[in-house]
Amino acid sequence: MTGAIALAPSAPVQVPVVAQITAIEASLLAFVVLTALATALARDVLAAVIVFGAYSLGMAALYTFYRAPDVALTEAAISAGVTTVLLLLTLAKTTRIDHDVAFESVNLPAVGAVGILFGGLLLTMGDIPAVGSPDAPVWSNPEVSQWYLSESYAQTGVENTVMAVLAAFRGFDTFGEAVVVFAGGIAALIVLHREVFA
Amino acid sequence: MSDVRPGDETADDDADDVPPHRARDRSGRLDSERRQGTPYTESQVIMPTVKIVAPFAFTYGLFITFHGAGSPGGGFQGGAIMAAVVFMIAFAFGIEATREWLANTVVVALAVGGALAFAGIGLLPVARGGAFLQYDLLPIPVKYGLESVEVFGIAAIVSGVLMGLFFLLANGFDSDGSGFGDGGPVDEDADELAGESGSPEADRTAAADGGER
What we know:
Number of strands of chain B: 0
Distance between the termini of chain A: 47 Å
Mean pLDDT of chain A: 85
Radius of gyration of chain B: 23 Å
Shape of chain B: elongated
Oligomer: heterodimer
């Protein structure tokens, strides 16, 4: 939010510089879109998995750019790291077919269906507040978000508001999530007819 | 065809006929041949790299976990990073060896212990007449209550379950429990040769027959 202001130092502070897009942001967005397309179109599954890892890394960098380092860390660790490793391991247990062509042929009906969905989603873009906009609900409803920002340190003594919300204010939800992860491991054991992990 | 072991194709597509480099027998060590159940290529580049990187990556995971209160991060991210260090070691020194080195007990203890620790920290205030996870009723400061949930609860669950999923996938799947990796590529050929036959026994005999042709 402050970065957008820093881009136009001559402008008054209260003028929201929301329509600008920096070179880093633009290149990251282009990278993410290109790697997503390559993931969908790559013929070789191994290539798709590797490009998907690159996509996740681009998303992690984008989250960092948008000042969501907690989400970026999760994206980098889980999506770029662990998921890629698990997919590669699955590929290693199956066969890999050599292909002559690098990309799948484009399925036009599928492109049409996705295009209609994409167009419908694009229509909602007008109602989404711009990044850093002071009219965004997170800023215009201070009684909710500002309460957490001002009270989380006072009530929990934790500087990281995200963690204060996760572990304290929404601690019961987090307990549920942790149990879901635990249950996921148990479910994998059951599905694979095993009694031990190792 | 039926003699081809599943790892041989994945190790190197160009070297289908050449057996992969096997670790020399250094009994007791992670990379000894005795502990290798699946084919594994010993790389002089990957192993030293992992030896150097792993302590730093593990320390980073610990930092992310323990310092989640003061900086971005927390148990979920740190646990994932620590599990990723184990994946790294497994790729460098062999999954089978790592699986034996890091016993099932450790993985299960992390996952179950994490769930119990989170529940325990949540229920202790209930026992004292408060609400679930009411941190100010814990005998420690509120900040350390949050930290202990992140460290002993979430980080342990996430790292344990991720390691468990990794070893499960590496172990493979078979309906009779002996490992899907033993017949993966052969079964595909068998499907084409045997046509409609769906039962694994029929596939296996078809694979044995088809392998001779």
